[in-house]
Amino acid sequence: MITLLFFDFRVRVGVSLATSWIGWRLWGRAAGLAAGFIVVTTGGVFTMARAPMPDMTMCLFLTAALAAFVGAEFDDRRVFLIGFYILLGLGFWTKGPVALLGLGVVVVFAAWTGGWPAIRRLAFSRGVLLVALLIAPWFMLTMRTASDQFWRDTVATDWLTWYVPFAPWRGRALVEPLAQTLAILLPWSPLLAFAGVAALATDARRPGRKVVFLLVWAGVMFLFVAIGKEQRMRYYLPLCPPAALLIAAWYQRVNIPHRKVLSIATAALVAVGIVLWQLNDDARHNARTDLSALGPETVKLEAPLYAADVPDLVLTFYLGRPVIPVRTLSTLAAPGRRLEHGYLAVANRLLPQWSTTCAAPAIGAGMVNGLRFSVLRLEPPGCPAP
After folding, report:
1. Which of 4, 91, 146, 271 is the most core-located residue (most Cβ within 10 A)?
2. 55-68, pLDDT tens digit by residue?
3. Structure pTM?
């Protein structure tokens, strides 16, 4: 728990500081402070910083990279471009190629505002080479140690096809991205519409370069995730910093009486509301999670632990031990390797499929995030492995 809280604190503060720095460089100290407070109190940042997922850390590196780009582009400190490319390369190590969306943001922004000469100022070829050098060790280590299943499940599926719109488009495909965006930006999402309209109306309906940068940042992130067949609220996390900056910039321009009193009252109300909501959410989450059946007194630490349709990353985080995912259930009946020894956490809805190919006794039951699972003890001859 101490590690979790420390990680939570560092990531939240990092995203808040990077967002504040961008707001300060673009619109001044007041806008920076407001943006930092807004982003750290969005539902997405406040919740995901405490979740055992890489999305929040990736958001931190991406936001910091774009903060470095702001220093290079708007403060004319070209040396900051080195930091921009380095931070993108480090972001790759957290969640793969999705962190490189920062390249798309700056290229679209440069093309929109200055055309080819602006793109050339990005030192793009040298920057991409620097990023490639930073991520090359990952591929070298993976090629030596990873299995074919890792390349198939992680590289091919999670990194590439996961974001491709293979599924047929329906009305839900248009509504769900908007719903996810509004949800992750709560309680500030109602103000986003006002901020967006105000941004487009800047400079007599010709948005300045600062506003264009934020609109491009938010637009590239939203479109990339929205067209994908897989929709998760956490995928929209990189929208929180540009949305917070847009709202902060709009608020600084609005003529409101007693602005200071209103700002303090709003901040206090939001802070109290988030604390109360988090306490309630923690209690609800604890009621939906029971991992006692996977404790060391039942599942021996020296034996491997497999997970079938149970979130292996979550189990790894909370149990503090490796959990091996078994994903391709369609190949269970095929000849090949077998899971001859260890334990298997399998979702209850898949038990009928396992019972025909795997004669393993159930030794316990549990629940994670509301998903009920059973724990099987694998003994020779075991179960077919993918």
Report:
1. 91
2. 888 899 999 999 99
3. 0.72
